[in-house]
Amino acid sequence: MRATAGISVLCGIIVLSLGAHLTSLSEEYFESYYIFAALNIAVGGLTMLTIPVMVAIDFVRTGAITSMVLVELVWLSILWVLWIATAAYTADQTSEAFSACDFIYPILNQVCNETRAMEAFGFLAWIVREFSLPLGLGPTLRVGPRGARAPWSFVGFQFPTRAVQLQ
To answer: Is the CB of residue 119 less than 8 Å from the CB of residue 90?
Structure first.
């Protein structure tokens, strides 16, 4: 699970930086910004800030509210929805203008390629969340009806250990 958290954070950093650069360029040349770029900045920033905090709290303090499987699943499900919305909105807003990146001006080619990268990493983060959510939800649903607690934290993926005393 740490690998999926790392991939999500990496996608968040990339999408955040590309969205910020596109916003900077559009403000410079058009004195306006694109809403899809602002959405990319927001979702990338949320992902970049919250997932590492959840992992860090999971390592430092066991039993914290952010380490509960239910809390993690709810927040990661929200991020899942935000990532698909971000990627789909970016693809929708740029599909006609940037169907082919063969413009005369290099700045337009750069903007075209950056929006394609934002789409790609948005969909990649969504796919990672898509496949990792059932991995956390499955064991929780399997042990929940028996009254047992979930065997590990979803983000930190800590397996239960037995303390061994040496005598």
So the answer is: yes
Give the model confidence (pLDDT) of 63-107 as tens digits. 777 667 777 888 888 999 999 999 999 999 888 877 777 778 888
Structure tokens at 157: 């993926």
pLDDT of residue 140: 64
Round to whole Å and give the CA distance between 56 and 67. 10
Residues in the chain: 167
Is residue 138 within 8 A of residue 1, CB to CB? The reply is no
Q: Are 105 and 5 in contact (CB under 8 A)?
A: no
Number of C-beta neighbours around residue 47 at 10 A:
26
